[in-house]
Every structure is written in C-alpha cells, then in structure tokens.
Amino acid sequence: MLLAFAVIVLSLIGSSNWYSIGIYAGGSWIGRLLYPFFHASVVHASLNAWCFICLMFIYDIKLTRVFVAYIVSVSFPIDTLSSFISFPPLPTVGMSGIVFFLFGSISFEVRKKLYYQSWMLFYLIVGFFFPNTNAWLHLYCYLCGVVFSLLNYPITICRKK
C-alpha cells in the first residue's frame, strides 16, 4: 500500500526532465533504477497502483517476489534490443514492468489458465498499437514472470489410473 501511495504522490510532483529518470537506450543507471516510481500522469500512476494492489492482495504476493519483479524490470536490456527493435521516442517511466512481471508470475496460480493467458495475450498485443507504450518492456517482464512461475510452481500432470 505504501509503495502504491508513494507512486501516486510522485506522479503529482512529476518531473521536468524525463531523461533524468526514464529508461532509454544509453540512459544512466540512476534513471534505470528510478523509472518504476515515476509516471507520466496521475491516471497512469493510479492504474498501475490499482493493478499492483489487486495483485498483492488477491494472490498474497510477498515482498521477495516484488523485489525480483523490480530487478527484472530495471534490468531490461534496452541498449541491446534498441539495435534490433524500435522503441518509443520518449524515455519509459512507470511501474508497469513490475506489474507485468507479477502478471506473469501468477500464470500458474490462476484457476482458468487458458482464459487468463488469452486476456494477457490480448493486453500485450494491444500495447504494441499505442505509440508511447513500451510494449517490448511489458512483453519482456511478462515472459520473465512466466519463467519465474514455471521455476517456482511446477506443473503437475495427473495420470489416469
């Protein structure tokens, strides 16, 4: 709750220079470490905070998983990928990378797995059609979350007797 509140307050403060706190090819490490906590608008911050709080309470996500999500989102290989893929012209800000990692990490905890994965595929694809959305970051974090889920929640196969 405190993190979500801090994110919304920081969105009210804003920043005059997104290049100092955003993630982009050739960006600084301080910007890479801070970008999840700043948002382009209050609506952006509120949506991310709402998703984050829902995930935390519905799936009882521990702080260690949130820390792993943070590490994954700040380690996005934008410098390497920018030579192959085009990214939005503005630096990326927001905690949606953390949220998408958490979405991926609960992949095998949900009851309706196919339904859930279908909606997540839809959200990921739609993200590529919005010009200022870093959909590659969302995809990277989501897939890392799925791998995290596979490693921590092995799939059990029931055999017929």
TrEMBL record:
One of its GO terms (cellular component) is membrane. GO terms for molecular function: serine-type endopeptidase activity. Residues 29-147 form the Peptidase S54 rhomboid domain. It is a multi-pass membrane protein. The chain crosses the membrane at residues 38-59, 66-84, 90-107, 114-131, 137-155. Its main location: membrane. Gene3D superfamilies: Rhomboid-like. It is found in: Membrane. It comes from the Bacteria. Keywords: Membrane, Transmembrane, Transmembrane helix. This is Peptidase S54 rhomboid domain-containing protein.
